[in-house]
Each structure stands twice: as C-alpha cells, then as structure tokens.
Amino acid sequence: MATVAHHHDEHPTGITRWLFTTNHKDIGTLYLLFSLLMFFVGGTFALVIRTELFQPGLQITDPHFFNQMTTMHALVMIFGAIMPAFVGLANWQLPLMIGAPDMALPRMNNWSFWILPFAFMLMLSSLFLQDAGGAPATGWTLYPPLSVQGGIGVDLAIFSIHMMGISSVLGAINVIATILNMRAPGMTLMKMPMFAWSWLITAFLLLLTMPVLAGAVTMVLTDRHFGTSFFDAAGGGDPLLYQHVFWFFGHPEVYIMILPAFGIISQVIPTFSRKPLFGYHSMVYAIVSIAFLSSVVWAHHMFTVGMPLAGELFFMYATMLIAVPTGVKVFNWLATMWRGAMTFETPMLFAIAFVFLFTIGGLSGLMVAVVPADFQYHDSYFVVAHFHYVLVTGAAVAIFAAAYYWLPKWTGHMYNEKLGKWHFWLTMIGMNLTFFPMHFVGLAGMPRRIPDYALQFTDFNQWSSIGAFIFGFSQLLFVYLLIQTIRGGKKASARVWEGAEGLEWTLPSPPPYHSFSTAPVVK
Amino acid sequence: MCFVRSRSRRGPLSRLIAAVGPALLPGLAAADYKVNLPPPVTPIGEQILQLHNLIMIICAVIFVIVFGLMFYSIARHRKSRGVKPAAFDGNSKLEVFWTIIPFLILVGIAIPSTATLIEMTDTSKSDMTVKITGYQWRWRYDYPDHGINFFSSLATPREQIEGAAEKGENYLLEVDNPLVVPVGKKVRLLFTANDVIHAWWVPEVGVKKDAIPGFLTDAWMTIEKPGVYRGQCAELCGKDHGFMPIVVNAVTPEEFDKWVVAQKQQVAAAAASADKTWTMEELMARGKQVYQTCAACHGANGEGVGPFPKLAGSKIATGPVDAHIDIVLNGKPGTAMQAFGGQLNDVDIAAVVTFERNSFGNKTGDLVQPAQVKAARK
Questions:
Q1: How far is CA B12 from the centre of its chain?
Q2: A397-411 and A417-444 helices, crossing angle to 10°
C-alpha cells in the first residue's frame, strides 16, 4: 500500500492554475465551489417563491415572474447544484478511492467543467431580458405547447441544456473510463468502494439519458423557430410525445441525483459504526436493479394524461417494484449500524438524517406510484413535498455528509465540530419545517406552481416560508465553516476517522497534488 | 465523553425551541388545519380515500418499525457506552427475508389499486356528457346533450388579489358561471384544450385529468351529495395558471332541469340583444366587465404586463376600428394574443372594443355596434 508522492511544482499558479488544470483534485474543487455558488443562486430563487407564498394575494412578484422563479429554481438546483456537486465528489474521490493517479481523461475533465459556468451564464442572462419574456416560465420540464409560446428565455434554456448535456456526457465517459481501467491492482469490481459502484452505474444512466433530453429540447427549438410540428396536434404532432421523451430522461435523472448519495451513505455509516457495510453484494445488486427499473417507469409522471389502462397498470407495477431494492438498501444501512460502536460526528448525523428523511420521501414515492391515489396527488403540493424529501433531505443532505466526511482529507484541517453540529440541527429544523407541511396543503387541494392561493392554505404556507428562511440562512454557517477549515484548524491525520477504511485514508491529509503515481496493491 | 459533549450542545438548541415554540402555539390552536384529503362526494373519491388511508397506515407501520429499530440501535450501540463493534457483514436469510416481505406488501397494495383503476377508467353507460375545454385562463363547459355552452372565469375581483380589498371566503375559488350537474347521475367528462395543456382537478370529486390541445381525454363522476365543490387547474398553463378555478354545483335532477331551461332562455335573450342598437353607456359598462379577461395580460389600466403590450395610446386601440375588431376576433398568430371570436359573442366584442378605444386616456370616441362585429366575422 506504499504511496510515492512525487512533487511536481511546475503547474501554473493563480488564475491559470484553475483555468488550465487537468488535476482531478483541482477540478473536483472547482465543481464543488461552482455547485455551492449555484446552491445559493437557486436558494435565492426559492426564497423569492417562499416570500411571495407567505400570505395569499400577490405581494412581491407578478405571476409571470413567479413562474420564472419556479422554473429557474429547479433548473439551477438540478443541473447547477446537485449534479455538479456529485461530479465534484467523483473527481476528488474516485481516483483516491480506487488508487488511480488521476481521472482517465484529464483534459476532457477540464473541458467538461469549464462548459458549465458558460451554460449557466447563458441561462441566467435570460433573467435580465424581462422585456423579451424573461427567463423560461414553463416549469423546468419545458412542456410544449407552453414552451413553444414562451419568450427568448426558453431558447437560452435549451442551448444551456445542450451545453450541460455535453458536460455531463463527457463527465460520465470519464468516470466509466477511470473506474473500468484505472483501479489499483487487486481491486476487483466487487471489492470497489460503494461510492465508486454507485457512480459507475450513475455514469451509464447519464450516457443513456442526456442525449435523449438534448433531442427532446431540440425538437421544441425547431417547433418554435423552424415550423416543425413535433408537438403540435394541428400539424400532426403530439404534445404527449414530448412528455414521453422528456421523462425517459427525467426519471433516470432522479436516480442520477440519488445513486451517488446512496454511495456516500454507504461509506459514511460503516466508518462511524466501526463495522463493515452489511450486505455488500446485495447493495451492488440493488443499485443495478434500481438503475434498470428507473429506465422503464418514466410514464408514472404522466398518470393523468389519459394513457390506456394497460399502460397505467404497467407503469404502476414497475414503479412500485423500485421500493424493493430501495428497501434493501435502507435495511442494509440499518444492519450496518446494528451492534456497531457508533459515534455521531457531523457526517454521521447527516448520514442518519439521510436514511430517516429519504425514507419519508421513498414512502411518499410509493404512495404516488399508486395510480388511483395519484389522481389526487399529481401536480399538487404533495408531490412537491415528495420530491423535495428525496432531493433536498436526500441528495443535498448526502452531499453535506460527504463534504464533512472528506473535508479534513481535502484541506488537511479538522473542521469545527461544534459549528458543524449547529449547521446540522438548524438545517434539519429549517428543511423539515419547509417541506413537511407541504404534504398537508397538497392533500387539502393546493396545486403546485401557483403564485397565490385560497385562504385555507395560509397557515401551512407560513410555516413553510419561515422554515425556508431558517434553512437558507443557516447555510451561511456552512460557508463560514468552510472558509475557517480551508484557512486553518487542527491538523487532520491521514486516517482522519477512527473507523475509516479505504485507500484514500492511506494518503496524508491533504493528499499530495499528485497521488498514487505508483499504484497501491489491494489484497 | 461524547455523551457529555452532546448534552452541552443541546443546551442552546433547546433554549431556542423554548423561545420559538410558544410563539407558534397560538397559531396552532387557532388555525383549522386540514391534513388529509377532503371528504369525497363520489364513489370513486371514496375508494381513493380508502386506498390513500390504507397506504398511509402501511407506510406508517413500516416507518415506525424500521426507525424504532434504528433509534434503538442509536441509543444502545454507541461507542460512548463502551460497546465493542460486532464484525458481521451479511446474513443471506435475513436479506432474502427483507426482499420478499416488501414484495408481498406491494402485491397487497396493487390488488385494490388495480380494481379501483379499472372502475375509474370505465366511462361507459353514462347518463350525460360534459365537454370541458381549457383556455388560457378559464374553462369552457359544453353540454352536447342539452345544447348549452358557456365560459367559466375567475370571479374574485383584482382588488382582492392585489391586497386593496379584503379577501372573501372563497378567494380564488369562485367563478362567474359554475359547472352545474345533477346528483346521482353518471356524468361523462371529456377534456380538451384550446392552447396549452391544462388539468381539471376537483379534489372532493376525485377527478383530475389533463386537457390536451388536439386530443380528447375522458373521466367520469357520479356526485352523490348536492353541494358546491371547488378545485383548480393543476397543470402549469402560463401566467394566470393560479387564477382559473373550477366550481362544480351539484343540484337535484329537478333543479338541473330548471337550470337548463333558464340557460336556454339566456341564450335566446343574448341573440336578441345582438340585433339592437346599443348606447355608449351600455357598451362602456359591459365592456368594462368583459375587459377583465383582457386585463390579465394588458393590465387593469391598459398599461401592459411584462412582455404583453399596453393598450393605452397603442396603435391598435387608437387606429382603424376594423383592425382592432380583427385582432380581437382572430388573434395574432405567433403570440399569446388568442382569437376571441369563438369565446366572446358579438355584443361582448363590440363592448370591449368600444371600451378599449375610450379608456386609459384613449379618446377616439368610436362606438362599435354588435352588428359591425357580426359583419366582420364573415
């Protein structure tokens, strides 16, 4: 397991270091910081939404601008915050965890990151073109014919989706090439850390679906400007065709945002339980079967469009089936904790919160899979609650767990544990206060994406808005903690955590700029 | 050690809860919180509610068992209690067990769900049909069996929305012309849309269906209890998506028959009024009402909203009358300006055009008669 750290000092410094870097650690850092920035941009949009919804009536936005906010909030959070955060974690961690000196395709790695800031500049610029219709106001799904009606913002969003798609596909190719070709001698696939497994499967899902999304939005573009009628019944097209194609991307996309989170949790829980992961093999099979099932359930987003009975039944059964492998994962995490010797540092707190809260989202997911009941839930705030429980208290919480878990490794300093716990508890109070009442207003009949609502929904909306501000502002604590940790603090050991297992912990903290130049051997 | 530290950590937090808690409590006690689906008034709605409650209970039981075990483990299996970690990393029997049990539970849920779904999709043997068309941003109801059709628009005044007046009891859930149906009859609902996709949703009735331009979808309802049931558009359909409510008025079959007769008389009266000559005052008063539809985009005072053009001093509203009538009748292709010819009658169009040409500082003095609009339709 010996590592030889060559010291190369010839890499450029200052801004060029970041512009031209092909180093997986630098690119990982860029991805993570970009994601943090977008988390705040998307969060600001969310706070505009929650401020407007604090009470009935129109206060701070007009309905058109409100629709721009919901659309941009989703696009920025999905493509700008969650996905780049996972790619950043993959960049930093995959080579360290599988004993590779870098990603397999470093120059492409640089490009796939640097496409992103330009894609988002393009999309966000539409906010400044209010006279031409402003940002897309169609919902992030860009459903035609509404998106065909939309202003220039729709075009800008389509182009930036093309760019993000290229970035994601390049990133996915890189992950697959790295994992399949650059594992340390002795590390068979079935010995890989679970985070690597989850990313390998995620990368295949990205390759499968991103081109499909690009195709769907390109058809919207030609419908808008070049007289085609793919989605216009008057020209022989079908608005539902778009929905089928979009969700063929959109549903696996959901799992693109949760599988790496599963991987993270499967690293963190064993470490702080001081016990090996329970049921490694079934965990791998569960990820693979979730990925497969996720590709054949897309139309469960469309239960109310008037599909034939046989279609509804197929998509209902297939969707319900996903609960089985997902349940296996939750049970295995629980069994990993069982009879361990647990401690509860911040990463572990976030990991436990993930298991607990993601399961709420998973169970409400089972509910929306049941077609007759979904006729009530669909496009209501119940669904908003459901997917925020999966994506915020799920994916985002897992990203926080990962950040705290590996931060000492990246910076060489221990973070301030007390501050970390404050961040954790404030985040927990804030996010649950925001999202839990949404279940209730949804069941009571509040549709999603409305800027104003009937009086009976007022109280729960006020809870949500207060929660959103607690949640949003407590993230500033995280930024402070991050700066503090980067600048100094208690020196972190190589192992960092008493129960940590894996190649990354054999390197000093922080690891040298070029690590594993000589491959370690895994027994 | 760790335990002691975590106690001191909770100190400030519990103080925070103690401070904030009482502030929230009065709200908790006073408010009438609705936390479940509203009481259904159709057999399908009832089945959905039962299905929903069944899954809720199953989920709650699973949740309590799984997380009861987890929190037990968190309480017991901690290093601070001097526990030595076990070394096991798998148990085939256990893993097979917790793969098969959830599967069986799912089968248990799938069976009643399938039965309800089959019933929901069976729209045959209906007593009457209503065709529902979504427009940006109102609904149109057609009764092909009775020869009646009308539009149903938001009736909440703009002043309430903008906070200039106190909000009424049914704020945003009230319309000018509700959908009227008889109780105890199986009503087949057909859905389509004029422009973009909408969705017709009334929670108490248990119906939600997308209305898709160029396609027909269907559903059915048999309302068993007379009453007024309110819902909203559930599919984002543009700017005023939040402002196109649905009101269903379920009445006894006798009342329904009376209502049908009254509707037919109204249609006849409207046809007669199109032939008479209207005065400026009459047209302006009526035009002001009709203009509420236009105000969504062109502003309450003709000032325009965002990218939508203003009417105050505009070329259309102060230029030739014929061009003005034409754009209202036929719309402007490629923009959000719809063809209102199919939505408004001759009197309404004459009134609104007159209103727009003599309001917001526009002083053309033009007076448009319904006959002029009728002529322009040809």
A1: 44
A2: 160
Chain B residues whose beta carbon lies within 8 Å of the beta carbon of residue A365: none
B-chain CB neighbours of A320 within 8 Å are 106, 109-110
Asked if A67 and B236 come within 8 Å (Cβ–Cβ), the reply is yes
| Catalytic residue of the set A92, A114, A242, A255 | A255
**Which residue in B has a C-alpha nearest to residue A446's C-alpha?**
B232
CA dihedral A19, A23, A29, A30 (to 10 degrees): 30
Q: In whole angstroms, what is the distance from residue B369 CA to residue A305 CA?
A: 43
- Tokens matching residue A37: 């920035």
Q: Which residues of B touch A244 (CB under 8 A)?
A: none
Give the active site residue among A168, A359, A411, A485: A168
Interface check for A300 against chain B (CB to CB < 8 A): the answer is: no
How would you classify the pairing of strands B138-143 and B128-135? antiparallel
- Any CB–CB contact under 8 A between B186 and chain A? no
Nearest chain B alpha carbon to A55: B163
| Whether the Cβ atoms of residue A277 and residue A332 lie closer than 8 Å to each other | yes
B chain contacts of residue A355, beta-carbon cutoff 8 Å: 70
Among this protein's residues, is A266 annotated catalytic?
Answer: yes
Active-site residue among A301, A386, A388, A423? A301
HEC readout, B138-186: EEEEEECCCCEEEEECECCCHHHHCCCCCCCCCCCCCECCCEEEECCCC
CA separation for the pair A47, A385 (Å, rounded): 16
pTM of the entire predicted model? 0.88
Provide CB contacts within 8 A for A499, sequence distance 6+.
Answer: A270, A271, A272, A273, A274, A275
Q: Which of A62, A266, A320 best tests the B interface by mutation, with the highest count of B CBs <10 A?
A: A320
Q: What is the pLDDT along chain B (378 residues), one digit of tens a residue?
A: 344 344 444 444 455 555 554 445 444 444 456 788 999 999 999 999 999 999 999 999 999 999 999 999 999 999 999 989 998 988 999 999 999 999 999 999 999 999 999 999 999 999 999 999 999 999 999 999 998 999 999 999 988 999 889 999 999 999 999 999 999 999 999 999 999 999 999 999 999 999 999 999 999 999 999 999 999 999 999 999 999 999 999 999 999 999 999 998 888 887 777 778 888 888 888 888 888 888 878 888 888 877 788 888 888 888 888 888 888 888 887 677 888 887 888 888 888 889 888 888 888 888 888 888 888 887
For B323-348, give the DSSP string. Answer: HHHHHHHH--TTSS----TTTS-HHH
Reported ipTM: the value is: 0.91
**Taking the CA of residue B2 as centre, how many other CA atoms within 13 Å lie in the half-sphere pointing to its CB?**
13
Task: Kindly determine whether residue A323 and residue B102, on different chains, have CB atoms separated by under 8 Å.
Answer: yes
